[in-house]
Design a protein that fits this description.
This protein is mainly α and 197 residues long. The chain has helices spanning 18-26, 30-48, 62-75, 85-109, 125-129, 132-144, 147-158, 163-170, 175-195. Helix content is 64%, strand content 0%. Helix 1 crosses helix 2 and helix 7 (147-158) crosses helix 9.
Length: 197
């Protein structure tokens, strides 16, 4: 599969886990930094797809949000206390969400040529499946989970990584172990969402 630029698409998982690349990058390894940036670009691009409403895309689009989130993450890498990839992915996801919300808020303040207020938030494909109340409960429930459970859901469900890729990122010994971790995380998420009613 190739990316938009015609070159090969970066792999989500390779011989090094994301957290190995983070540690090596923190240690000053430039090759690890480049590999980490390529891997994270694909991951953040998947998360960002469809999240920025059309009406909010004035001079920014999803690629701009991806770049902003990656630059912010890489700039703060030494300050990110991530013992495992789950904590790192949680940080990265939160950074991207913050950039998206900031852009939506800026778009709401921007004067419109027609003089009309900004339209209601256009939902992403995931958001469309859930109503606004359920989406709010999902986000609050996700925030209540531990880092490992949150990462399992983000990697497997939101990003659509294969079980093998999810296992590699979570440090699980097999795809079956990753499947079990995701199943447990989904169960805990459902319980957390039930508590949010």
């Amino acid at each position: 599969m190739s990316s938009e630029g015609g070159g090969p698409e970066p792999e989500l998982a390779g011989p090094d886990s994301t957290i190995d690349l983070v540690r090596r990058t923190k240690g000053g390894d430039g090759l690890a930094r480049d590999q980490l940036f390529r891997r994270l670009t694909l991951i953040v691009r998947r998360w960002a797809t469809g999240r920025l409403p059309t009406w909010a895309r004035y001079r920014s689009d999803s690629d701009d949000l991806v770049q902003d989130a990656l630059i912010a993450t890489m700039r703060n890498l030494d300050r990110i206390d991530a013992d495992g990839s789950s904590e790192f992915y949680a940080y990265l996801h939160k950074t991207l969400q913050s950039k998206i919300f900031d852009e939506i808020e800026r778009a709401k303040l921007r004067p419109r040529a027609s003089g009309e207020p900004a339209p209601a938030l256009t939902l992403s494909p995931l958001d469309t499946l859930l109503n606004v109340e359920s989406l709010d409960r999902y986000q609050r429930g996700l925030a209540r989970l531990g880092d490992d459970d949150r990462a399992a859901i983000l990697l497997r469900i939101e990003l659509g990584m294969s079980l093998e890729e999810t296992a590699a990122e979570l440090g699980k010994p097999s795809a079956d172990a990753a499947r079990m971790a995701v199943a447990r995380a989904v169960k805990r998420l459902a319980e957390a969402m039930q508590d949010e009613r």
